[in-house]
Design goal:
16 helices; LivM-like; transmembrane helix; branched-chain amino acid transmembrane transporter activity; ABC_transp_permease; ABC transporter involved in vitamin B12 uptake, BtuC
Length: 347
């Protein structure tokens, strides 16, 4: 009897240790965020484009949560992104331009849209989900287009005024405050996502992604958890839209277009799914490639971008990710070796 009770306790301790190890920050992770913050000091003239890259990264993070960890294929994240963008803009016009409150409003708006449409995703496979999410985004696009008295229609929502952050830091034309603000929001959202995917809830999502029937057989509530992660991803997309509105002080129908969702998916094509840092790094790479090609060949840059994406998927998508993970494991092993040797030599 004692042995049968000791085995589950030992297994529970082993699982708890594995989860703690997953939550531990590595050397490369800390270096990544230091490098991400350094342009605020060393590249002040690039803050506008860097702010746009941060928005891409949050959008990619939103898609990665549902695709990389839950296996939900979506072409409709633009619906939550656009609703969050418009909600933040309208809130700043008719209520208050306080940016943090606008973020909360956008997150709630994106979550409500995602939750109300998530039940449609549970009725079919990947192809059905693609068509349903694409249709949802198209519906919201047309609603915003027809409600020109509220959204501005094709002319966009104008008259947005954002108050200084904390009453002190104004959103200047050079994007200095916008970049620091956007990067801080990204960091908070990333920490929460990182804790989530390394928790038992996150591992249950991976089980659902790999085999939903087996996950249901072992007692995992498949449908409620898919609804929960899709709602959370909708909140993330809404926040990304709000950041665009607040930093640009303008929003148009492009926020609800198919291109917005496609850009997020293309970012994940570069970085890979199921790895949170992939979307962040590939957002930078994608924007650099996009701007570089558009400056070299203004008429045919999309053609060359498509060629590069196809080549990257076929030949090199997993290699950068495997290299980063190998370096991270190597540095973690080196950092733990002195402690291990000390314990071995201890009496």
């Amino acid at each position: 009897m004692q042995t049968s009770k000791a085995v589950p306790a030992a297994l529970q301790a082993q699982i708890s240790g594995a989860l703690k190890k997953q939550r531990r920050w590595g050397t490369l992770e800390i270096a990544f965020w230091i490098i991400a913050a350094s342009p605020w000091f060393v590249l002040p003239e690039q803050h506008l484009i860097l702010t746009e890259i941060v928005g891409f990264a949050i959008m990619a993070l939103s898609i990665d949560l549902i695709l990389g960890y839950a296996g939900i294929v979506s072409l409709g994240q633009a619906a939550m992104y656009g609703v969050g963008a418009y909600a933040s803009g309208l809130f700043s016009i008719y209520v208050t331009g306080e940016p943090l409150t606008g973020l909360v409003v956008a997150a709630i708006s994106g979550a409500v849209v995602a939750f109300s449409t998530s039940f449609l995703l549970l009725r079919g496979g990947d192809l059905t989900r693609l068509m349903v999410t694409l249709g949802v985004a198209a519906v919201f696009y047309e609603i915003a287009n027809q409600a020109s008295w509220l959204t501005g229609g094709a002319d966009g929502l104008q008259g947005i005024t954002i108050e200084p952050l904390f009453g002190q830091f104004e959103f200047d034309l050079y994007g200095h405050t916008a970049y620091a603000y956007s990067l801080a929001v990204l960091f908070v959202l990333f920490i929460f996502a990182r804790l989530l995917v390394s928790s038992p809830f996150g591992y249950s999502l991976r089980a659902i992604r790999d085999n939903p029937l087996r996950a249901s057989a072992v007692g995992i509530p498949v449908k409620p958890r898919l609804v929960a992660i899709y709602t959370l991803a909708g909140a993330y997309a809404g926040i990304a839209g709000a950041l665009f509105t607040q930093t640009q002080q303008f929003i148009s129908l492009d926020a609800l277009s198919f291109q917005r969702s496609a850009d997020g998916l293309m970012v994940l094509v570069i970085g890979g799914t199921g790895y949170l840092y992939g979307g962040l790094i590939s957002a930078l790479v994608y924007k650099i490639i996009q701007d570089g090609l558009s400056s070299l060949t203004p008429q045919y840059w999309q053609f060359w971008l498509g060629i590069l994406l196809v080549a990257f998927v076929l030949f090199g998508r997993d290699r950068p990710r495997l290299l980063i993970r190998s370096l991270s494991d190597f540095l973690s092993h080196r950092s733990t070796r002195p402690g291990a040797s000390t314990q071995e030599n201890a009496p």
